[in-house]
Amino acid sequence: MSARRIFIGVDIGGTFTDLVLADNRGAIHNIKTLTTADDPVRGVMTAVAQGLDEAGAAPGEVTRFVHATTLPTNLVLERKGAKLGLIATAGFGDLFHIGKQHAIGPDRFNLSYTPPAPLLPRSMVAEVAERVNAAGAVLRPIDRADVERAVLGLIDRGAEAIAVCLLNSYANPAHEAVIGEVARAVAPGAYVCLSSEVWPEFQEYERAATTLISAYIGPTLANYVGRLEDALRRIGIDAELQIMQSSGAVMGAAMAARKAAYAIESGPAAGVMAAAHLAREAGRPGLVSFDMGGTTAKAGLVVDGEPRITHQFRAGGGTSAAGRADAGEPIKVPVIDLAEVGAGGGSIARVDTGGFLRVGPHSASSYPGPACYGLGGAQPTVTDANVVLGYINPGYFAGGSMTLDAEASRRAIEEHVARPLGIDVVAAARGIHALANTAMAAAIRVVTLQRGIDPRDHALVASGGAGPIHAVKLAELFGIETVIIPPSPGVRSAWGLLISDLAHDFVATAIMRAAEADPARIATILAGLEEKGRQALARAASAETRIVVQRSIDIRLAHQHQEITVPLGDGPVDAALLERAEADFRAIYARTFGIRPKEACQFVNFRLRISAVVEKPAPVGRAWGDGIADRARKGIREAWFDGRALATPVYDRARLEPGDRIMGPAIVEEPDSSTICPDGYAATVDLHGNLLISPASADERSGPEDGDAAPVERTLHDALC
């Protein structure tokens, strides 16, 4: 038998820290612990110790350790990053503060719109005399003495991190390299971030914002990964610490420390990567990914077995999404196209001054947590509502590692919601549950309908500790007929870390008319990007590692300023290949906007991703069972469905086998989550262990007659309206 190799994935969320430990022999161990917000490293190491102990594994057997964290996102949301300084080309120091001069998203037509405070005041911007044109030619050389004065001036004013974004440096980074060299020499304690190293793409404002975000979160992230590496080494884990990128690829910790913006959405990206893996495994090329944790809910889209990637993401606003955010900052690095809203299990419910029920975006987090946690939380949350409705077993939360106080949930909802609204506790809990669904539907709407995608053509795959509780009702809102609940959904993002490859992304801007494009020039550009990629991978990949290269082009209509990224197939770059790319662009444009354009096209950016395919955990072998689910039945409890309290069968998921079919209403429990199969639905276990929930056939449907549900419905309607 071959030597045992252990793979560990750890995902830190706002409420729980999730760990998946798998090996090359098919064993899998899942760990879920409360996040230690005051010191996330401590929470990670607690989970690691539990995982190694449960698996009977030695630290030296760990060959891969992959990590995702909400730390970068929280630093931006809470404005707790480093004090910034910015160095810009003389005459362009106001570029970042001018921005785009228009409101975004819901504030687009708000005449009273007030822009958010920028990441740094204008006084922390220094200008240096230099100039490079769009072709990369030096028009005015840079003066090192001028650079030194600018750097020291920012340091004197308290800068902890210095971002550098010079005009046209994407075409020629030489001047930025000089500034980086000088800054690191005269201010060795400062964190220095160059736009030409972070993401050398045209569009100065977006490039500046990306660089500033990277500098803003970089010092804290570098400190964090350094402390985590030290902690892992102390217990004997020598495997390289790898960090999940927002693009769904994995990078080394050293790169994460230098290019922190790449990790801005690492946790949500891992969840979508897990959904993409499920899509390929189950033969379902199109999926809507829905991940509901304790603090937020995330939605993404999988097309042809791969997540959609965007270069128009905005972070730090009320709703993070590609091309849509409430006052977020633009991020040009590759990000999985997802939307995130402040609705999770820990989202706090309240009655506002107008007497309306509200849920989120504020969260109780892990401490003090929902009222039922018994850790001091007094405000009712979505989790408390689900406990009252019978969807969560108080004695089996997190596999029984926590016992929930159901009466505390009832008291919190009674005091803060039911009594102010003049309704009973169950009606209030149903209102909280329904409003959470409405908030989360906004995220699904962004990645489907707002992208020209009909969600009815896709299945919904739900993950996160709370996702399977809400999934079917969310699917109903969009007419989605099939809901898929993967095994261990509560730690699915941590699993996604282990099936993601090590990869690097590169870009080169070269604007040209498609009709006049020179294939030889484009081939040279892409070859240069590939050489950079192979050099970057050489340090982490062995000679036996399989390397995968993916090329793409950003194409736009002439006289427009927004591009669509189009995959460029394999093979030599010739006229035929470029013509196919242009045809694909026109097809995508027509599908997205409903218009088939006839105008001429431009090629704008050339992109390349190079991946080193890593060893994955061994697949879990399953065989078809006898189709009788009764062996997994563990009891009955009262749960509420459509205004009725029903005696609901409860099943142990670990005892379900492929081919088993369960009629709703039913609850399927496992240590990290509970799945709700409502009345009128049926759940079937497939060969991969997924639960497939869809409407039951007419012959299968049965349930109580309509009776006294109407008064409850009227009360709920009054509470919501």
UniProtKB/TrEMBL annotation:
Pfam families noted in UniProt: Hydant_A_C (PF19278), Hydant_A_N (PF05378), Hydantoinase_A (PF01968)
GO MF terms held by the record: 5-oxoprolinase (ATP-hydrolyzing) activity
Domain Acetophenone carboxylase-like C-terminal stretches: 527-688
Cellular component annotations (GO), alphabetically ordered: cytosol
GO biological process: glutathione metabolic process
Residues covered by the Hydantoinase A/oxoprolinase domain: 207-505
Residues of the Hydantoinase/oxoprolinase N-terminal domain: 8-185
Domain of life per record: Bacteria
Name of protein: N-methylhydantoinase A
Naturally occurring in which organism (per UniProt): Rhizorhabdus histidinilytica
